[in-house]
Amino acid sequence: MHMQEKVNVFWYRRDLRLHDNVGLFHALQEDEATLPVFIFDKYILDELPEDDARVSFIFSEIQKMRNELQEKYGSSIATYYGYPEEVFKEITQDFDVKAVFTNRDYEPYAYQRDANIKAYLAEKGIEFHDFKDQVIFEKNEVEKNEGGMYLVFTPYMKQWKKEFKKISADTFNSENRLHNTLQNSRLPNLSLGDMGFTKSSIEVPDYHLEDDFLENYEETRNIPSINGTSRLSTHLRFGTVGYREVVQKAASAKNETFLNELIWREFYKAILHHFPETQNRAFKPIYDDIKWRNDEAEFEKWKTGTTGYPIVDAGMRQLDKTGWMHNRIRMVVGSFLCKHLLIDWRWGEAYFAKKLLDYEMASNIGGWQWVAGTGVDAAPYFRVFNPYSQTDKFDKDKKYIKKWIPEYGTNTYQEPMVEHKMARERCLETYKAAVKKT
């Protein structure tokens, strides 16, 4: 296996594509050949069930890229299963590595992992180059004129759009340089079974971004019974789509609602970067004093979609069967858990982290803290979603509900586990008590 020619490593993470990939583009520009690698990280995988749909999806996307590289260029992607620092020891033993290229990730674990790898490589005299690829603006690139992070979305969004007008959206056509990948199609390869996983029955649907879809997005995006959303979220999460082209397309649409959703994603990433403690603490510390009820049996009913609130149950069953839930319904089920049942938002966040194909820590924490009223630019705590009026507004003919709850309308469907008016009053008292303490 040992090769004396110098190579540059491109380390794949959340950017599973050959085209428009910033870090890959920069690696391929170098004189040395590029060795692409992907590490199935034991720190992450050890927590997951054996039929985890995300692992299946990542695995099949990597196989697609391997096949294309093998057929066209006689090269491949080396895949490893282990702890990143140990895998890098193996890579640096087997190859003469000049530098490692990768795209930045903004979650607390990723920062720690990358710092460890960078330190290890530095000891060996190997350079580490990281690039911005999954966002247009990162860290401090959109901030107030006087400096500091925006804590409210709308001014952040306006500033983002101003900054966006100033930049030229470069294309990083990595796809045109793939002949500079290391010509070796026999690189380390794994099967799902080698890692103790089996193929999931859950498929990730393709995304769609037609012009008329973007045009009408504002009207269609809240109706859970139609295909009114782009289904882009999982592809953004794993980088199987070039982010810059998506943003360009959204920015050129007459209706800016879709672009604003992409900007929310960047807003939450910037918040998590500046306030990593919000991973497990309320952004507004007074709300860490809420006396949650945290009833395990009630949490179970919420998870299994047997609360007796049809719109909530439909959403939870959709999540269980497909690994995805409509965004409007995410707000409804989240509000129900925190406000109606007084269960800590962190319980809901952790459950979504297990189930959602498109799980992104920044957006998930942002969304959960938003419905709980504890977060940055959150819904005020006294705003309690009414599942019945949400149903009248967004699923009037109960199409969505009937799709996911076959027993709806029969006497086998469960009675509501808690009465709306009582739950709302109990919630307001509990929140008020927490706020009063300070």
Could you walk me through the main structural features you see in this protein, from its secondary elements to its overall organization?
GO terms for molecular function: deoxyribodipyrimidine photo-lyase activity; DNA binding; FAD binding. Keywords: Chromophore, FAD, Flavoprotein. The record marks 292, 345, 368 as: Electron transfer via tryptophanyl radical. InterPro entries: Crypto/Photolyase_FAD-like_sf, Crypto/Photolyase_N_sf, Cryptochr/Photolyase_FAD-bd, Cryptochrome/DNA_photolyase_1, DNA_photolyase_1_CS_C, DNA_photolyase_N, Rossmann-like_a/b/a_fold. The protein is of the alpha/beta class and 438 residues long. It has 3 domains: 1-132, HUPs (Rossmann fold), CATH 3.40.50.620; 134-169 and 210-274, Serine Threonine Protein Phosphatase 5, Tetratricopeptide repeat (Alpha Horseshoe); 279-436, DNA Cyclobutane Dipyrimidine Photolyase, subunit A, domain 3 (Orthogonal Bundle), CATH 1.10.579. Helix content is 47%, strand content 9%. It has 19 helices and 5 strands. It has helices at 22-28, 42-45, 53-73, 84-94, 108-123, 153-166, 211-215, 217-220, 233-238, 243-252, 257-274, 296-304, 310-322, 327-340, 345-355, 361-372, 387-394, 399-404, 420-436; strands at 3-12, 33-41, 78-82, 95-103, 127-131. A 5-stranded parallel sheet has the order 3-2-1-4-5. The mean pLDDT is 95.
